[in-house]
Write a structure and sequence with these properties.
With 245 residues, this protein is an all-alpha fold. It has nine helices and no strands. Mean pLDDT is 88; it is low at 1-14.
């Protein structure tokens, strides 16, 4: 009982408020940028086997470790960021299909419309040239993207970012809804290697996934399943040469 009371008091002391949430976002952005610069240094000395192909992977994984540390320090639990056990596990695949369909519809409607209005070029996927026709590399990239994109990015850019942005915007339903839309901005920016078109596509998808995060009552598992599936499809298209980089 005493341990539970102590844990509750620690949670109340460390639960992110407005300023703390802003500080956490700033810490994340600064550290993530620093990690990217470190990774850039490794690329310059030839430490990466396929220049450009695995760019961002190391910094993304280490950024996830940072988020894990912030969650623990604020006496939160992973369920606070959406990694919670659903009342019925069989609903997760169903919701995953719903999220996937909504995301694909957005890609086929909203993205082309914005591209025409803003005269934005298509995403630059030339960094994946080596995957085309290379089955072994396809398996590595597909599996890696499903983990880093499907799981890691959803935890960071939906679970963590919406939690912190929602608190920064004052909390409540309005703050969280604004945060769900705003989470697409940093998500789009981290895909700068895909060019302006790629940033726009991922920003739109980030906001769509943010909205679906609220629709699923802040359960990340359907989003993780849908995001992993989309990344697999993307890598499959690249491997088959369907997409022209």
């Amino acid at each position: 009982m005493a341990d539970q009371i102590e844990h509750t008091e620690r949670m109340l002391e460390r639960t992110p408020g407005r300023s703390t949430a802003g500080a956490d976002i700033l810490i994340y952005l600064v550290v993530a940028f620093g990690l990217w610069e470190l990774e850039e240094l490794l690329r310059r000395v030839g430490a990466y086997p396929y220049p450009g192909l695995f760019d961002g992977g190391m910094s993304l994984i280490l950024s996830f470790v940072l988020v894990w540390g912030l969650v623990k320090w604020r006496a939160q639990r992973w369920r606070d960021l959406g990694l919670k056990k659903p009342a019925r596990w069989w609903t997760i695949p169903l919701w995953g299909v719903v999220v996937l369909v909504v995301s694909i519809v957005a890609q086929l409607t909203i993205v082309p419309l914005l591209a025409r209005l803003l005269n934005v070029p298509p995403p630059d996927l030339s960094r994946y040239d080596a995957v085309t026709g290379n089955f072994g590399l396809f398996l590595i990239c597909a599996g890696g993207s499903m983990v880093t994109g499907g799981f890691v990015e959803e935890v960071i850019y939906r679970g963590f970012m919406i939690d912190r942005l929602g608190r920064l915007f004052g909390g409540g339903k309005t703050g969280v809804r604004v945060a769900a839309l705003a989470c697409g901005i940093p998500f789009g920016l981290v895909h700068f290697q895909w060019g302006i078109g790629g940033m726009m596509v991922t920003a739109v998808m980030g906001s769509v996934l943010g909205i679906m995060y609220l629709v699923t009552k802040r359960n990340l598992w359907p989003l993780i399943a849908a995001h992993a599936t989309m990344d697999f499809i993307l890598m499959l298209q690249v491997y088959l040469g369907v997409l022209s980089p």
